[in-house]
Amino acid sequence: MDPYLLRKLNRERAARRAVIHLTDLGDGRDRVIREGDPVAGDLGAAVAAAFRSGRSGIVAAEGREFFLNVHLPPARIVVIGAVHISQALAVMARTAGFDVTVIDPRTAFATEERFAGVDLVADWPEDVLKARPLDAYTALVAVTHDPKIDDFPLSAALKTGCFYIGALGSRKTHARRVERLTALGHGADEIARISAPIGLDIGAANPAEIAVAILADIVRALRRRPLAGDGA
């Protein structure tokens, strides 16, 4: 690879931005495509599909063959609240290939015994997220039921454009949450991005089943997310 392209690729990866190293298998010419860069025609459709799936491979377009080497930032799930749902979700999500962080200032809940092997931070979300900011490849899951803990990261996730934002609570609870987020300056379209009640509606009846519903909702959001520059 050309040293300039290699530097560009490494720079984008370090910044947690999605890129594809595209090589024309006919003449060997290559380039780095960032998510949001315009690519027309059938090749553009193949590039968009690769950004969503994360799978590298050979595609045929415009009478030629190309190899798409896809580099997506590792998708993360940041869970606000060290509750029973979070315990189940952390295990399932890591099995599915997600990086998981659990944040909760309540030290009675955020214990190593309850979250063995999990990236657990016993501090207030507003302090943690200053050093570890959210981004477009992060899913934010708020499950404490406590506005003092949940509201700041939910607002931060809306501002940042996390690919998934979910919050636990009934419709009545969420209506009050909408009022608070509106007071913080968020518009109705923004707030509508929040999955609340959280997760897919599968009739979940216990923490493990709720975790399944949340993880399925996150995977669907990741694979069907609008890409940068597509106007969605």
From TrEMBL:
Source organism: Shinella pollutisoli
Protein name in UniProt: XdhC family protein
Annotated XdhC Rossmann domain residues: 77-218
Recorded superkingdom: Bacteria
